[in-house]
Design a protein that fits this description.
By secondary structure, the chain is of the alpha+beta class. The protein contains 4 helices and 14 strands. The protein has a 6-stranded mixed β-sheet with strand order 11-10-7-12-13-14. The protein has a 4-stranded antiparallel β-sheet with strand order 1-2-3-4, with helices on one face. The chain has a two-stranded antiparallel ribbon with strand order 5-6. The N and C termini lie far apart (109 Å).
């Protein structure tokens, strides 16, 4: 009898170990599930990038857009125009300037390649970038988003080229290339956001209102906020620039 009891003891010992191991596995799985739930609660929860933003304004384009000028308008299929947009929401903007490898030969959206971009208002170009990754870079002024309107002498070239919306990392304190005339210095360090726009100042005025309200809501410092302008190549006004506010377009002296 004692021998039979002794032979069953290892079985009881292993059974207890197996039960303990199963409990540990279940506890580990529960911990992983809880960690996963916490991670899902954190990812995508930034109040600066809340989903479901309201549409504020939508850019209008020349008929030949997204081509750079009217000479190439015949090569732009309607499918490409349908997927070209510039939209401002209350916390970001979205753009799509696609291209069609087959040009006007294949007028179908299946052959269109999208080039989308999303920019939130708490990051450049709507806010000053960070120097060395930790200090707001405001030593050369706030960033600028401006409309660039092509002119040749006194001739408005917008009907043939449209206007561009461009972004510069700083205003360079509105210094001119030739001291008191010509375009502002920040033109040379700007990049295009949209081209072929037919009414850029109206869009930028709406965008200015949205970014100002966003900055006020989220406590973005005034000296870090983007400013808006309209820049002209016209010789008559010496390449002057005008500031764009959320309510009106004012001449900057």
């Amino acid at each position: 009898f004692s021998g039979a009891t002794a032979s069953r003891k290892p079985h009881i010992f292993y059974s207890r170990n197996m039960a303990s191991g199963k409990a540990n596995v279940e506890l580990h799985n529960a911990s992983l599930l809880m960690h996963s739930d916490n991670a899902q609660a954190v990812h995508g929860s930034s109040v600066l990038m809340k989903p479901g933003a309201d549409l504020i304004s939508q850019g209008n384009f020349m008929d030949f857009a997204p081509a750079p000028c009217c000479l190439y308008g015949c090569l732009i299929p309607e499918a490409l125009k349908k997927r070209t947009f510039l939209r401002a929401y209350d916390n970001h903007i979205e753009t799509n300037f696609p291209f069609a490898p087959c040009l006007c030969i294949c007028d179908d959206e299946r052959y269109v390649v999208d080039k989308t971009w999303v920019g939130f208002f708490d990051k450049p170009p709507f806010r000053s970038g960070m120097a060395c990754g930790c200090i707001p870079c405001t030593c050369c002024g706030p960033p600028v988003i401006f409309s660039h309107n092509p002119k040749c002498c006194c001739i408005d070239m917008t009907p043939w080229y449209g206007s561009q919306i461009r972004a510069a990392p700083c205003s360079c304190f509105n210094m001119k290339k030739c001291y008191c005339c010509c375009n502002p210095c920040y033109i040379d360090c700007s990049i295009p956001i949209a081209r072929g726009v037919s009414d850029p100042n109206h869009f930028l005025a709406s965008l200015a209102k949205a970014t100002q309200e966003y900055a006020k809501t989220h406590g973005i410092a005034k000296h870090e906020q983007v400013i808006y302008a309209s820049v002209s190549d016209n010789v008559h006004d010496f390449g002057g620039s005008r500031a764009i506010s959320s309510s009106a377009v004012m001449v900057r002296t």
